[in-house]
Amino acid sequence: MTVEMEGSQIPVKRLPDRLAGGRGLTSFQRDVRLAIEAMQRPAIVFDLPAAATLDSDAIDFLIWCALDAVGRDAQVALAAANAEHRTVLEMTRLSSIMPTFPSIDEAVLHLQKTGCHSAGNF
Q1: Structure confidence at residue 94 (pLDDT)
Q2: The model's pTM
Q3: How far, in Å, CA of 42 to CA of 81, rounded?
Q4: How far apart (Å, rounded) are the C-alpha atoms in residues 14 and 12?
Q5: Sign of the Cα pseudo-torsion (94, 97, 100, 105, in order)
Q6: CATH 3.30.750.24 for the 2-118 domain, yes or no
Q7: According to a count of CB atoms within 10 Å of the terminal CB, is the N or C end of the chain lower?
Q8: Phi then psi for 51, rounded to 5 degrees?
Q9: How far is CA 54 from the centre of its chain?
Q10: What is the C-alpha separation between 79 and 17, in angstroms, rounded?
């Protein structure tokens, strides 16, 4: 999904309820990397579904995203994190490098204000 606001497009990817290591994670990583590579000023929002558990595979994926983003001068934002998600993000300190917003629209708006936009659709 791509959210467009005021002429700017930011890809939004729903984090699966469960990320399994191996092929599933690799496929998801490939999708995310392709979306980021297609962008002029890379940014992506991950929608955290209410039922999702941020287990070690999900944390590993988010760390991979954070490291990949740094290398590409990209920004990653998280949307719709519940109380359990926020606790895990704070304990792992991911909350200090991945801003978290109550909604997708607020995350996209934040990224747009920082000048991030897509060159194409996700």
Answers
A1: 92
A2: 0.77
A3: 22
A4: 7
A5: negative
A6: yes
A7: N
A8: -85, -10
A9: 13
A10: 14
Q: Look at the block and give the residue holding tokens 């999904």.
A: 1
Run of H or E residues at 110:
helix 104-113
Query: What φ, ψ does residue 6 adopt, rounded to 5°?
Result: 50, 45
DSSP 38-100: TEEE-EEEEE--TT----HHHHHHHHHHHHHHHHTT-EEEEES--HHHHHHHHHTTGGGTS-E
Question: What angle do helix axes 23-37 and 56-71 make, rounded to 10 degrees?
Answer: 30
Query: Using CA of residue 59, residue 63, residue 64, residue 68, what is the dihedral sign?
Result: positive
pLDDT per position as a tens digit, 91-100: 999 999 899 9
Q: Give the whole-angstrom CA distance, residue 33 versus residue 44.
A: 10
CB 46 within 8 A of CB 83: no
> Taking the CB of residue 106, how many other CB atoms lie within 10 A of it?
16
pLDDT in tens, 56-65: 888 888 888 8
